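Data availability (excerpt). The following record was deposited with the supplementary files.
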Amino acid sequence: MSPEDFRIAQNNFHLFFTKDNGEKISIGRIYRKKEVFQQCLRDNPKQLEALVKELSDYRFQRWYVDKDTNKMDILPDDPRSQEMHRKLYNAYLLMREYVEDDRTLFK
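Predicted structure:
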């Protein structure tokens, strides 16, 4: 899949790299417990750990919902966006070797 197609199709892939703030329920921790991530981590520990560290603080979703008004607002473009999406794509290239169908990474 090309980087352009990945950017459209990636859906929840970035959740593998969501920061774990030590909360009881952590979406990043849940995603990183998936077998595909664990297999990739066993084979590429330094690369994947570095990607988790770099990507965990980045907000890939460029919108948020105000809890009081329930209104969705679009966030301004981030100058690091291109670089961070390139790193996310590199993570995808590592992890896709462990699945038969790329779409399983985007759920």
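Summary of structural features: The chain has a mean pLDDT of 88.
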